[in-house]
Design brief:
By secondary structure, this protein is mainly alpha-helical. It is built from 15 helices and 2 strands. Strands 1-2 form a two-stranded antiparallel ribbon. Strand 1 and strand 2 form a beta hairpin. Helix 11 crosses helix 15. The N and C termini lie far apart (111 Å). The model has no long low-confidence stretch (mean pLDDT 85).
């Protein structure tokens, strides 16, 4: 074969594996133009047409549209630029398909109700930006106006789910439950109260030295009592309750009295909302974090101990 050899459409079809109809289609659109015509008017092509058709077939199999392909073969666009753009487009498609695969697998494994299936379908249709907006709306409702300090910025980050580009079934299920929970107005109100209480505690009391979080204090003080099975209503619990009250009095700048202890019991009851515990567990699954420690038993012990010492005397 040399550069002067000309081929009919039938010969091109045999050499490229394309059909005559396909080659004629490309020829009519100027993607592979004929070099010459026979005396009878039939199209004839040179050897360059074989290379162009091989490239066109490859690009079509990769999903490129014909206008783009024509620009590539005519060298109006570099193949490198086109490949980079389509690689990114394919990456997006792969992420979407991976998510849909996980959703369908979750539906199949759970035997989901029609409502759950519809919710999962909505998840599969949501873009990453749409999922981000849903969470941003929740965080704004909870922390809006309270996030000026670095501490609140850290809390917001710690409560932000980041669904992976290729989540597994468990992560999809966790995301669906977490998304529904974040839409619950009552849950939002409860978390907002916790955030406002935290903001009040940060703004009041003795501001010298680091301010310990109330949940961390409960864990440190009450953990040993729970481990040694101390009854929250027993005299053995008095020093622990006193230490909790002293810490909270220091935080608020109030004296340790019955009013403060009742306020502390209410504060701990708000934190002890089981939906908060559930949110944190779901968040850990979505983000691939280790499961968080549940502080519910510690809060329950503390609330019972405080209540036993603040009930009105009969």
């Amino acid at each position: 074969m040399n550069g002067d050899t000309l081929y009919t459409i039938g010969e091109l079809a045999r050499r490229t594996g394309l059909t005559v109809k396909t080659i004629r289609f490309y020829s009519d659109r100027g993607i592979v133009a004929p070099t010459d015509r026979s005396p009878a008017g039939y199209r004839r092509y040179n050897a360059d047409a074989i290379a162009r058709l091989d490239l066109v077939r490859t690009l079509r199999e990769l999903g490129l549209d014909l206008p783009t392909i024509r620009k590539v073969v005519d060298r109006e666009l570099s193949l490198r630029e086109v490949a980079a753009a389509h690689a990114e487009a394919l990456a997006v498609q792969i992420r979407v398909l991976s998510l849909r695969h996980a959703v369908l697998t979750a539906v199949a494994e759970r035997g989901s109700t029609p409502k759950e299936t519809e919710l999962m379908h909505q998840l599969a249709q949501h873009s990453e930006d749409e999922r981000r907006r849903l969470i941003d709306d929740f965080l704004e409702a909870v922390f809006g106006g309270l996030d000026a300090t670095p501490a609140f910025a850290g809390v917001m980050r710690s409560m932000t789910p980041e669904l992976p580009t290729a989540p597994d079934v468990e992560q999809v299920q966790a995301w669906m439950e977490l998304a529904e929970l974040s839409r619950d107005p009552d849950f939002r109100s409860g978390v907002r109260r916790m955030a406002e209480d935290h903001a009040t505690e940060q703004a009041r009391g003795d501001t010298t030295g680091p301010r310990r979080d109330i949940a961390a204090t409960v864990r440190d003080l009450v953990g040993p009592a729970l481990a040694t099975h101390i009854d929250p209503a027993s005299p053995q619990a008095d020093p622990i309750v006193a230490a909790l009250a002293v810490h909270y009095a220091h935080v608020l700048g109030h004296p340790d009295d019955i009013g403060l202890r009742r306020r502390l019991a209410t504060r701990l009851a708000n934190i002890n909302d089981p939906r908060r515990d559930r949110y944190l567990r779901l968040l850990a699954v979505v983000n691939g974090w280790p499961p968080p420690e549940s502080l519910a038993p510690l809060f329950n012990w503390s609330i019972e101990a405080l209540s036993a010492r603040t009930r009105p005397t009969p």
